[in-house]
Design goal:
The chain has about 250 residues and is of the alpha+beta class. The protein has eight helices and ten strands. The strands form two sheets. Strands 4, 5, 6, 7, 8, 9 and 10 form a seven-stranded mixed beta sheet that branches. The chain has a three-stranded antiparallel beta sheet with strand order 2-1-3.
Length: about 250
Amino acid sequence: MNVFSDTVSEKIGNYVYRLIDPRNGETFYVGKGKGNRVFDHAKCALNYGEDEDDVSEKIGRIKEITNAGLEVIHVIHRHDIPSQSIHEVEAALIDAYPGLSNIQGGHGSNSKGPMSTKELADKYDLPEINVPPREKLVLINVNKTENRYDRESLLRQTQASWRISDKAQEADYVLAVIRGVVVGAFVAEKWMVATHNNFPDIIPKDQDMTSRKGFIGKSAPEEIWDKFVGERGKRITIDGMKHIQNPIRYWNLN
């Protein structure tokens, strides 16, 4: 099936759906919509030529499926959802399936998504950043880290690779953020294209991401680290600094 009747479209209202790869049963995309939105992705994939460079991971997966003579499995996960709840339902489902091809996370996932009990306690017990900083900042949501108290490890995980604006070069500092908590502060000495040659310890060979960038840098001076991170991290309470869906946030950078 690749289209709903008008009757079905009217009855199901707002819904959240999953796209599943029939080759391995893996959910690779979660979205929300109404009417025939769930079928639009496969139709869009048919319009991409084989030589197009700007093909998303989602479109690439769909093309692989169709080239194998198969069809994407469409599942409506929940339907007839009130408009005011649709973002929360979608976000919860996105959080439940790590490794999706969604370009952006779910609404509020960076601040309200899955956390350990310790992360949740830290989120609401740690000191706050509640005075608007004067510094120019790039805030990068790194989601998780192997050891948030190892500055070198945290720097490597923050360095690359990101879809980021050229205005990042004007930033005074780059802040690493996990679930709304600043856990690291760094000086970006140079922004470079995310290739293995530029970041041999981070990006594997043959996995260059030329549409993304990373930075060569070091830990921020101690007074800056203390201001934004402190001993165990500081919570962001300023709306303009909070991550919503995009992993990159800019502060005082026009």
